[in-house]
Design brief:
Elements: H1 3-37, H2 44-52, H3 59-70, H4 75-82, H5 92-118, H6 121-128, H7 133-144, H8 146-162, H9 165-171, H10 181-190, H11 194-225
Helix pairs in contact: 1-5, 1-8, 3-9, 5-8, 5-9, 6-7, 8-11, 10-11
Length: 226
């Protein structure tokens, strides 16, 4: 297959993976961040520590345990059997699961910080006006924490785009199925194909700069507005 087709496939697969992962993380991470931000027992911080583990764990360690979990003998094997497959390892679905776990702290933490920055006063006022907890969340917490949602979505998306170790261990290098951009760059370098490696690496460098610059401007604008 021509290198241009391989590059197009890797780019499309990476964008699809990052988009699905970010959407899942926003849906799953928002209630987790809300729960962690509310007053509660001390062991909530133990849950927060578990969620934050990917920040300090080597990708190979997390990838190894995910490979076991997604393999035929793990929970992933049972889930795969429901759709007539043997394993979720080395599949796109397995990449989504691994990416959600590995990128979760990059989404949960900014949203949690945004919720905590609101304070209790707005919710107390909403309660005196007859707002239910559900109304307080959607009409008070969600609008006031929008910067946290934007930051979390951007960080989750970009972290998924750039991840290498975990996706290589649980997904391998299957063209059109698990060969994302980071794996493609590694493959091109390993086979001494410098031109496509330069193209993809340069593109990711520019993309990373734009994202960091945009997040910085967003934070500056938010601080100015407050």
């Amino acid at each position: 297959m021509p290198a241009s087709s391989e590059i197009s496939s890797a780019i499309a697969l990476t964008l699809e993976l990052a988009s699905i992962t970010t959407l899942v993380l926003l849906l799953v991470g928002t209630p987790i961040a809300w729960w962690l931000s509310r007053p509660g027992p001390w062991w909530k911080e133990a849950v927060a520590a578990v969620i934050a583990l990917p920040l300090v764990l080597p990708p190979t360690v997390l990838g190894f345990y995910l490979l076991l979990a997604l393999g035929p003998e793990g929970p992933g094997g049972w889930l795969a059997s429901l759709i007539g497959e043997r394993s979720l390892a080395f599949t796109f679905e397995g990449l989504v699961i691994g990416s959600v776990i590995y990128s979760m702290p990059f989404v949960v933490q900014p949203i949690r910080n945004a919720f905590e920055a609101i304070g209790e006063r707005p919710f107390e006022v909403a309660s005196t006006l007859g707002a239910s907890p559900w109304d307080s969340f959607w009409r008070v917490a969600f609008p006031l924490a929008r910067t946290g949602f934007i930051t979390g979505a951007v960080l989750g998306f970009t972290h998924t785009v750039g991840e290498f170790g975990v996706v290589l261990m649980i997904g391998g290098n299957i063209l059109g199925e698990t060969k994302v951009l980071s794996v493609a760059i590694y493959d091109y370098v390993e086979t001494l194909q410098w031109a496509p490696a330069h193209l993809l690496a340069g593109g990711m460098l520019a993309f990373s700069f734009i994202v960091i610059f945009a997040v910085t401007l967003l934070g500056r604008r938010t601080r100015t507005a407050t």
